[in-house]
Amino acid sequence: MxxxxxxxxxxxxxxxxxxxxxxxxxxxxQPVPWIIIITIFTPIAIGLMIFGYYAMKGxxxxxxxxxxxx
Length: 70
Prior knowledge:
64% helix
């Protein structure tokens, strides 16, 4: 599960390089939307990978029930 987010980042980067063209008139051909998409999605994907890593290790199997357990 954690690896799929890395593949999505690679996919976005490839599509970014493929779709940006100087002669394009559509929004998909401009670099600014791609830069925004990649800079917003990358930290989210990294956070989800970290969450998935700890979830697979079982860190969330027992959550504290009171403040004394923290």
